Every structure is written in structure tokens, then in C-alpha cells.
Amino acid sequence: MRKRSDIPDYILKLLRAKASRSPCTYKISAIAFDKHGDVLGHVTNSHSTFDVLCKVPLGRAGTALHAERRLFNRYGGHVKTIVICRVGANGNILPIDPCPACRRLAAKLGAKIISVLPGDGKTYS
Question: Which residue from 48, 72, 73, 116 could staple onto 85, CB 3.0 to 4.6 Å apart?
Fold first, then answer.
């Protein structure tokens, strides 16, 4: 368990700014770090264009591509830590946990996912 103060303010500002630009209802952003602590990239969640297996068109429930998944797709095994953040319409940080599928993928790739949580100023991995 790490305190939120361990995450630099510029990272929190970047997470908030990036999440506010998400096209999804739940505005989520994530930043990936490599084993040296260098930033690999930052993304938001997004709608997939089409879910081939379920044959569900863009924008339907369950078709969003998670921010964590987008980072793993883009950077693969180079990702060692991901910090995720959910932002409300008013810009406040809201509670978020990675889904079971993203947790399994992180464990498989040897990465950890840290959630920025509101209020108590702590993050949990």
C-alpha cells in the first residue's frame, strides 16, 4: 500500500487532464511506467469500434477498451507499473479498481496496477 503523496503532483494532474478527455461515460486514464520508473505512455479508456465476438456496435455497454488494456496492448512486457485514475464530471477523483481480467493480465505480465482513490489520500495495488 502506498500513500497518494508518493505519486508526484504532476502525475496526478496529468491523470486528471487525460481522463477528462475520455469519450466514455466513465472517464478513466492510466499511465504506464517501465522497470526504471520512466513513463512509457498515458491513455484513456475508449470505445472499441466493434466487438466481433458479441457483434455489438460502438458505444454499447461492455464494449469499452480499458485504459490498462490499451497500455498492455501498446507496450506489452515493458510495463511494470500502471497508475489508474477515474474522474467525475466535476473533475473530482472517484473510486476505481481494475477489473478481474486486467488484474489477471497484469499478473501474467509481472506488472502491478495502482488505483488512485479519493478522500483518504491512499492508493491500493
Answer: 116
